[in-house]
Amino acid sequence: MSGGEVAGILVAVFWAILVSFLAVALARLAQTLRATTKLVADVTDQAVPLLADASAAVRSAQTQIERVDAIASDVQEVTSNASALSTTVASTFGGPLVKVAAFGYGVRRAVSGRKEDTPPKAPRRTVIVGRTVPGTRREKRTRGKRD
């Protein structure tokens, strides 16, 4: 055997080993592609019903939102009606009630004034550094000193 023949045999053996490794790799790749195809088919079979359920849930939610919107508009209308009624009642009964209360207060004051024959008290005044300050201003000053 010559050197060329040995080199040819070595190349043929390495070529055979390379082809067998490639054949094993292609077989595993084909097996992986089959598994992937099966997985995609299973996911598709399960996803279609889930999408149908999701679509039904969205439709149901839309219906509920429309109902809530109708309820909110009804509540707004009731609120405006109650506000109008409150304003009407206040304007109808509020003025006369205030007048009756004021009249009652005046009568009570007049009756209590006749029973007491004492003269009315003079308002309290406070002297601050040589000048007289009315009672309301004195209260403001003492509040400021407390703080």
TrEMBL record:
Residues 138-147 have a biased composition (Basic residues). It comes from the Bacteria. Residues 112-147 are annotated as: Disordered. The chain crosses the membrane at residues 6-29. Keywords: Membrane, Transmembrane, Transmembrane helix. It holds the Pfam family DUF948. This is DUF948 domain-containing protein.
